[in-house]
Amino acid sequence: MEAMEVQTVVQVTPLGSRSAELDEPEDLEKRAFELRQQLEAVEEQLGKREAGSFEEYFATSYTRLLRDRLPWLVGLLLLQSSAALIMGTFENLLDKHLVIAFFVPMIVGTGGNAGNQPGVMTTRALSRGTFDSHKLHKLVRRETLLALVTGTLLAVLAFLRVLLQYPSKIKEAGAISIAVFLMVNLAIFIGVAFSIVIDRTGADPANGAAPLLTTVADLVGITLLCAVAALLLSA
Amino acid sequence: MEAMEVQTVVQVTPLGSRSAELDEPEDLEKRAFELRQQLEAVEEQLGKREAGSFEEYFATSYTRLLRDRLPWLVGLLLLQSSAALIMGTFENLLDKHLVIAFFVPMIVGTGGNAGNQPGVMTTRALSRGTFDSHKLHKLVRRETLLALVTGTLLAVLAFLRVLLQYPSKIKEAGAISIAVFLMVNLAIFIGVAFSIVIDRTGADPANGAAPLLTTVADLVGITLLCAVAALLLSA
């Protein structure tokens, strides 16, 4: 209640009549802060009636929730099961070198994490300014260098990690290490490209596009690992 | 520019002097909309100087970016490599029933997706209203029922999917199917619990907590699958 009293003192300057000095960063920050405060107060009053609230969720029927959730889960499960098709294709290889299969979750997870960081960065930056081909080139140049460095370091780490558990499996460690390097480089660009596409199309990434991307990236990672292993270990 | 002209017409009502009728949902919505419009205009002017913008990213050195990103990637890679330790423990089982390893990505992915949906829902609802133990009980009751239904349907689907590729491996299909059921039920609660913890602690879930959760959930899923398979297939 006290906060409300304080807020009444804040002088609201209509946008049209603002003075020239309001263009200073400090004044703009102050103005944005005031507006955010007012918006929060109004939204709090609205809170219980807004979309996405617990009240709305509790009022939604089970069948409605299932109809919203199940199609995605079913579709993604079937898509993810393609991993079994890919790995099944390399059954002889994996049967002989089971250790490759043991490191599938590590490759897949590292790809996801490596792609997520520049992806989140790009999404945030896109929501906070303009984007043009000049910035895109600069972004790609920077991320290429970062991917090469990151990929190399993680590849060395993965190599040592495999040898730690299986000291005699140097060839397998090499294949896993190369797959990590390729996956990190690929994932960073998938992350940036995906963020730009989502921004351009205006889709809500939380709504299924993100898990879809993760699943596709996972399948790419598994294919990469099996292909590299087949090349190195069949020789 | 035209949009700016229009905005100057909008009458800004200071919060303190608003009339009683403003408490009507429609008026509150209108007021929130006006405030959001003004905030966006101010933020647009601020845009290029704000945290998270491309300008800020381009001004950040490579070493700074690597120092921000690498520790997470290294830590998560090492944590994810625990999957190889778990699967290595079940080496004899996986050697005899390689098909179990082929469906690890499907189990792990389905767990992630199943937990993500109620997790996002809970996070959104928490940001839009109050939360108490009554609502928590109701939420858990609803999600338990949803998890049982969702888990059962996905388990049947997984069973059929395994048989489609390996018609003779009924026991393996059964183990994978049971693991899917358990994983979905567990994942939904991990998702809800995680959202509540994040909300209480005020941490930014994008910052590493989310990939950490995913990784831990992945390891739980792999352990579940191997344990169920060991129980069913060793008999």
From TrEMBL, chains A, B:
Keyword annotations: Magnesium, Membrane, Transmembrane, Transmembrane helix, Transport
Pfam family for this entry, one: MgtE
Protein localization: Membrane
Transmembrane domains' residue ranges: 70-90, 145-164, 176-198, 210-233
UniProt GO molecular function: monoatomic cation transmembrane transporter activity
Domain SLC41A/MgtE integral membrane span(s) in chain numbering: 104-227
Membrane topology: Multi-pass membrane protein
InterPro entries: SLC41_membr_dom, SLC41_membr_dom_sf
Main location: membrane
Gene Ontology cellular-component terms listed: membrane
Record-stated family: Belongs to the SLC41A transporter family.
Protein name: SLC41A/MgtE integral membrane domain-containing protein
